[in-house]
Design a protein that fits this description.
Elements: H1 14-35, H2 37-66, H3 72-111, H4 153-176, H5 180-211, H6 219-251, H7 261-286
Length: 287
């Protein structure tokens, strides 16, 4: 790269491979929901492939950055790329929240006879709309026996994620001041919070599935619950991997007070994940 010119990365196979791996995971997820356990194996294969591709792709970008190949124009490209990626994630979760609000605000009241489309109440005349929906209108579908108490494990996870955003901000501020020890320490705490969140959500899922009857087959409440919290959990796993990668780079001295956009991008992603969780806690668990 000469002065002022735009760096064009070498041809990379990672974007197409990542797309294929993501497609494999989505096909596996759909197959799992419809046809059972065979789909879970396909989904797991796709997830493993995505994680491997992320690791190798990160490696190549880190090498290019450390070789001094990126200039200010490339830095702007990274920032715009990350911003548009997070915007696409906002739209992703907006679709699932939209489905949740549509069911609660329109579909269930219509089935109960309310509004202009209340004639749909003729399908199940004895149905009474309520949320959480413990008694689906179709008697062939068994709703959950109970719902999760939002003031136990979900509240703990909320406190963990909110606190993790604070500790990550402390780490970022320390890095900007050239305090590498402080940046490293606070980032370790943030990664630990992310890992504990994942463990607690696993315990929560076990409790819901085994003891409360809250499964993917437990009517619309069960399906929306696992779609929203499950995809968010996947994002927490990805975010924790990103933060762990940044932690290794901080240990190796890859960042300085003025050149650390990779750290900033990881922080943007983590704060976004935290904001989504607050919405989930309020509209899935509490209200």
């Amino acid at each position: 790269m000469s002065g002022g010119s735009y760096y064009v990365p070498a041809t990379s196979r990672w974007p197409i491979l990542a797309s294929l791996a993501l497609g494999l995971m989505m096909v596996g997820t759909g197959t799992w929901l419809v046809h059972g356990s065979i789909g879970s194996l396909i989904m797991l294969a796709g997830l493993v492939a995505i994680l491997a591709i992320m690791a190798l792709w990160f490696r190549d970008v880190i090498r290019e950055s450390m070789d001094g190949l990126y200039d200010s124009q490339m830095d702007r490209s990274f920032r715009w790329g990350m911003a548009w990626f997070i915007f696409s994630e906002v739209m992703f979760f907006a679709a699932f929240f939209g489905a949740l609000f549509y069911v609660r605000t329109f579909a269930l009241p219509w089935l109960d006879g309310e509004g202009a489309k209340g004639v749909t109440a003729l399908l199940w005349p004895d149905f009474t709309a309520s949320w959480p929906l413990l008694n689906p209108p179709d008697p062939s579908i068994q709703g959950p026996e109970h719902i999760l108490d939002p003031w136990k494990l979900p509240l703990i996870n909320t406190l963990l994620l909110v606190t993790s955003s604070i500790t990550l901000t402390f780490s970022h501020e320390a890095l900007k001041k050239g305090d590498r020890y402080g940046a490293h320490t606070w980032l370790v705490v943030t990664v630990l919070f992310g890992a504990v969140f994942i463990c607690i959500q696993g315990i929560e899922y076990y409790e819901a599935w085994v003891h409360l009857g809250l499964t993917l087959q437990a009517g619309i409440y069960g399906s929306t619950f696992f779609m929203l919290t499950g995809f968010h959990g996947l994002h927490v796993i990805i975010g924790t991997i990103i933060l762990f990668t940044l932690l290794q780079r901080v240990k190796k001295g890859h960042f300085d007070a003025h050149n650390h956009f990779a750290f900033e991008a990881g922080a943007w992603y983590w704060h976004f994940v935290d904001v989504v969780w607050i919405g989930l806690f309020l509209f899935v668990y509490v209200f």
